[in-house]
Amino acid sequence: AQMERTFIAIKPDGVQRGLISEIIARFERKGFKLVAIKLVVPSKAFAGKHYHDLKDRPFFNGLCNFLSSGPVLAMVWEGEGVIRYGRKLIGATDPSKSEPGTIRGDLAIVVGRNIIHGSDGPETAKDEINLWFKPEELTNYTSNQEKWVYG
Ligand code: DAT
Ligand code: MG
User: Fold this and answer.
1) What's residue 38's pLDDT?
2) What is the pLDDT along the chain (151 residues), one digit of tens a residue?
3) Does the chain have fewer CB atoms within 10 Å around its N or its C terminus?
4) How far, CA to CA in Å, does 71 sit from each of 42, 57, 77, 91, 98?
5) Smallest-distance ligand from the CA of 86
6) Does the reported pTM lie above 0.90?
7) Are the C-beta atoms of residues 103 and 91 closer than 8 Å to each other?
8) Ligand nearest to the CA of 116
9) Where are the alpha helices (DSSP H) in the chain?
């Protein structure tokens, strides 16, 4: 299998709404492997680093205030195609346009409270994993399911 890793975060709204287990279950049942997880309250400056590519957008300040407003569940998930397919599980950025069956489509209504983040490509996945996690926080293990998930 062509393994890759992506950064997934449940934002403060998803945590406060009690959606952690619901969201983790979707990645877990798919067959992806959890390799790192922690609950953190990021500073506003840290939120700004995470969203640095959006710094010129009018919603940037509000977005950083929001991300730093409470606990965020930061995770790294591994699997074949997990970066791209993780985005598919999450759904479109604006939940009013996300398909039913996706996380945002099923569980959120407005773009400013869309409950989850996922890296949008291999480069951002690498950068975001390095921003949120120290190397020693990333586990390396063989999932017992692997031979059944991938054959
Ligand atoms: P995504 O989270 O789907 O990768 P993005 O990277 O374009 O989307 O934007 C990051 C976050 O910024 C997004 O999850 C919610 C917020 N956001 C995006 N567009 C917005 C808008 N037009 N108004 C308010 N918030 C917005
Ligand atoms: Mg993005």
Assistant:
1) 98
2) 689 999 999 999 999 999 999 999 999 999 999 999 999 999 999 999 999 999 999 999 999 999 999 999 999 999 999 999 999 999 999 999 999 999 999 999 999 999 999 999 999 999 999 999 999 999 999 999 999 999 9
3) C
4) 8, 24, 19, 22, 24
5) 1
6) yes
7) yes
8) 1
9) 12-16, 20-30, 44-50, 60-67, 82-90, 103-107, 122-132, 146-150
Active-site residue, selected from the candidate residues 67, 115, 117, 119: 117
The tokens of 129 are what?
Answer: 């994993």
State yes or no: 59 annotated in a binding site. Answer: yes
The answer to whether 93 is a known ligand-binding residue is yes
Q: Give one word for 34, left, alpha or beta, with left for phi > 0 and alpha for psi -120 to 50.
A: beta
Residue 10 has which token pair? 């449940």
Distance CA 91, CA 114 (A): 10
Q: Which atom of ligand 1 is nearest to the CA of 92?
A: 3
Q: Which residues surround ligand 2, an ion (CB under 5 A)?
A: 120
50 is catalytic: no
